Amino acid sequence: MPDVEQLHLEDALEDSPQTRHLLSVFEKDTMLLKKFTQNMHNCCQRIMSAQNELCAATQALAHHLRAYEAQKFPLEPEDSVLSSTLKQFSTHLDDISSIQQVLAQQFSETMMYPLSKFLQADLEEISTMYEMFQQATHDHEQSLAKYMKHPMKKDDRSRVEVNEELYANRKKFHQTALHYYSSLNALQYKRKCFLLEPIMGYLHAQRACFQMGQDIVLRPELEDFLGNIGSSVQSVHADLTKETLKTVELIDSIEKQSQHMYNAEPPIDMPFIPPNTNLTQKAGYLYCRGKQVLLSTKWDRLYFFTQGGNLMSQTKEEFAGSLVMDLNEEGVVVESCVADDRRHTFQVVSPQTK
Asked: Which distant-in-sequence residues (6+ apart) come within 8 Å of 330 by Cβ?
């Protein structure tokens, strides 16, 4: 089984532009898969309808043949051979109709059911989770912006309320993202099952309805092919089961490890976790102050990261970062400052750019 593309659950909380870009690739893939599956479902529904119609038509034909004897044709003798022959034909058609009924039932169970289940229980669920993820993202960014705008002079009670709101929305966002990412990852396994099983079910049902020497349906190479596909599907099912267990354990582990990251200001009773001062690179979101008309200011949330001694910035819509300044330049310093009554503010000062 070739490697399956996966979203990294560890990156869900950071929500970097790179992670967002990879997520958009998975979402585009899911949209195309949903459209393909819906069209495939329509094709299978036509087969199902045609099989039901064939069964009903065969029954109607058998009933019509039996009705020949009751017509009392004026020129047809009472002991007509044609009448008895048609009656025998109607008996054979009843047998064929019974086989067709079994085939229709098998189509419903082995072809339509897994495909409908894939559409309704998996793809529609991901569509719902997509909306929940978008809402959680919006709520998180709203509460984050509210926290960043909270003045330093506000009382402690107000600050605690804002911090608790941010905690709740950040945790909700993280949990939603973890489950959304894991569902998208699982979809890469499920597509290998639920797109093959309906066709396997169709062919198995057809083969069951043919008898002795139907070379097209019962040829040995088809038997080998179906056997190989069946083994592959079972293998994917086994891989999916293992991946699901690993994902559940990983989500639990990530949630426990991320508890301290839900708070912008950790509670007093939370153990202190010292910062890692040995990092060669650093990245994360900052609010950057910019000027607007009439000398007013605006704070924009940007993703900053260091790269080769340069400070880079990047918006969520951008795929690559833009150079802010060279941190190796002589005279560049970082210092605390006060700006717009905001908390945790600092500035990077360069002799060249001032």
From this structure: 351
Partners of 310 in beta bridges: 307, 326
What gap in Å lies between CA 33 and CA 191, rounded to an integer? Answer: 8
CB 121 within 8 A of CB 137: no
Report the SS3 class of residue 302.
Answer: strand
Q: Which of 95, 82, 86 is nearest to 66 (CA)?
A: 86
First-to-last CA distance in the chain? 57
Please write the tens of the pLDDT for every residue from 44-76.
999 999 999 999 998 999 899 888 888 887 877
Q: Residue type for 174, please?
A: H
pTM: 0.69
Cα separation, 149 vs 72, in Å, equals 95
176: helix, strand or coil:
helix
What burial class does residue 70 get, using C-beta atoms within 10 Å of its C-beta: 0-12 exposed, 13-18 middle, 19+ buried? exposed
Alpha carbons 74 and 245: distance in angstroms, whole number = 77
How far, in Å, CA of 15 to CA of 8, rounded? 11
Asked if residues 286 and 302 have their Cβ atoms less than 8 Å apart, the reply is yes
How many residues does the structure list for the chain?
354
Tens digits of per-residue pLDDT, 207-250?
887 753 354 345 576 567 567 667 777 887 898 899 899 999 99
